[in-house]
Amino acid sequence: MSWLSAPIDAVAWLFQGGAVYVFALMAVACAVAVVVSQNVVRMAFWLILSLAATAGLFFSLNADFVGAAQLLIYVGGTLVLLIFGVMLTASGPFLQIKSRPGEMVLGGVVGLVLLGLILSSAISVDWANRGPRSAAETVGVGFNTPSSGNTTRELGLKFLGANPKDLGSSRSTLSPGFLLPFEIVSVHLLVVLIGAAYLARTKRRRDTANSEASNLSAS
Amino acid sequence: MLAPAADLNMYLFVAAVLFVCGVVCMATKRNAIGILMGVELVLNGANLNFVAFARHTPLGMDGQVFSLFVIVLAAAEAAIALAIALNFYNNHLTIDVDRADELKG
């Protein structure tokens, strides 16, 4: 059964931490495909794959709730909204609006320079030894270890202002928390909903409105 | 055969590529919806940075909370920008942003 060993090894590699690299490669390749492809519908498809792979990266970073929110809101909500936009606007000649090749080359060169700048500055910093570690490793009573995931309870406490890492220790202090940003975001969402409904409504044309007004005044 | 554990630099690399792809997408696409997709890519790269720093540095859960806010704001931004793009399409019968030059000074 030697021919079975290669796929079994590959599956074992995936389950022992190799899936992270598959997700990373998929996110990067699909993001590049979004830039390169000229068709809007294909761009939307590559963007869906890239965002889903990023959700996989979130799961690998022990951020299960953020990953689930990414899948639900981004992939399930925002991307569907964008695809509706494509459907409503991409009629015939507007499906492909080509950029000039010179612009693409210039954009690629500038992008590569920017990538080199960001990468060189990010890698030159020793992130592991910056700032105090404080109680980052201790786990409060009643909480899971970071590797077991389930971050919703910690996130909820963080919104209320308590630091879950400090709960079991003597230095249990309340920080301002994220209640005010939470309220601001909820009001912001309401404003955005009203604004989007106002902007996207079908307008009555000016001349018919005028004629109706003149009819009313005449009668 | 154990895969080597992914470190912070790998996530920073992926996030940098997402960010640069989004910026190039915003700069070169002429379709308004394509520009919106570039904005989504940029926000996604920033999100990945937030969560990676939450895991690998003393930042803690603050990074995840911030990424949740970013996701919500991206949804709001997409809704408003799409409404604006639809209005532009209704008025000009095209979605090419190079035609939107009536306010040129």
Index terms:
heterodimer; A: 219 residues; mainly alpha; Four Helix Bundle (Hemerythrin (Met), subunit A); 2 domains; 7 helices; B: 105 residues; 3 helices
What is the compact description of this entry?
The complex is a heterodimer of chains A (219) and B (105). Chain A is mostly helical and 219 residues long.
Walkthrough of the structure:
- The complex is a heterodimer of chains A (219) and B (105).
- By secondary structure, chain A is an all-alpha fold.
- Chain A folds into two domains: 11-111, NADH-ubiquinone/plastoquinone oxidoreductase chain 6, subunit NuoJ (Four Helix Bundle (Hemerythrin (Met), subunit A), Up-down Bundle); 138-200, no CATH class.
- Chain A has seven helices and no strands.
- Chain A has helices at 5-36, 40-60, 64-89, 101-123, 152-160, 179-200, 206-218.
- In chain A, helix 1 crosses helix 2 and helix 2 (40-60) runs antiparallel to helix 3 (64-89).
- By secondary structure, chain B is an all-alpha fold.
- Chain B has a domain at 30-93.
- Helix content of chain B is 73%, strand content 0%.
- The radius of gyration of chain B is 18 Å and the shape is elongated.
- The model of chain B has no long low-confidence stretch (mean pLDDT 86).
- The chains are: A mainly alpha (219), B mainly alpha (105).
